[in-house]
Amino acid sequence: MSLVSRMREDLQTARRRDPAAPGNLVMVLGYPGLHATWAHRAQHWLWNRRGGRSAARLLSQVTRATTGVEIHPAAVIGRRFFIDHAMGVVIGETAEIGDDVMLYHGVTLGGRSMEAVKRHPTIEDGVTIGAGAKVLGPVVVGAGAQIGANAVVVHDVPAGAIAVGVPAKIRGDAKSHPEPTQDSTVEWELADPALWI
């Protein structure tokens, strides 16, 4: 996929994920989540080239200063990744993120070990992580899972599950309720993780 095609896909993703999305020009100029994602791709490319790691690291700090998003250049991020509102997101070195993942502001994909091993989360395809949530350690968040706002996840989350609270606990079975609602009286359904603030 060409660079231009990938950028178009990112813009389509932003439009699909954000009902307040304006036109492409405004998104290109004013969406820090897109800027951080695009910058990370360049930094990741540099990181995997001989002699490029220092430049990648320095560029990631420039991106952090300008967008409020810190993504380690070594982190692996799939397609159609979107960060809504962007500010305060941290993604660690050994984090792996699948396709169609969405993060809200303030999310941390952090480590719990000082050893140079796989110490950051693996986020599988189609996961949504609510504002302020912390996913810590080499845990696996299964495909289609949802993490509530401000949850602290320190254990694996099964595919399709909903995890909320500190420490996060699994609420209901998302697979048996595929049609989310906005009804806040239904505890186990999570139409929007930000509702759990």
What does this structure look like?
- The protein has 197 residues and is α/β, with parallel strands linked by helices.
- It has one domain: Hexapeptide repeat proteins (UDP N-Acetylglucosamine Acyltransferase, domain 1, 3 Solenoid), CATH 2.160.10.10.
- It is built from four helices and 15 strands.
- The strands form three sheets. Strands 3-6-9-12-14-15 form a six-stranded mixed sheet.
- Helix 3 (32-47) packs antiparallel against helix 4 (53-67).
- The longest helix has 16 residues, at 32-47.
- It is globular.
- Residues 176-190 have low confidence and may be disordered.
Task: Summarize the model shown.
This protein has 197 residues and is an alpha/beta fold.
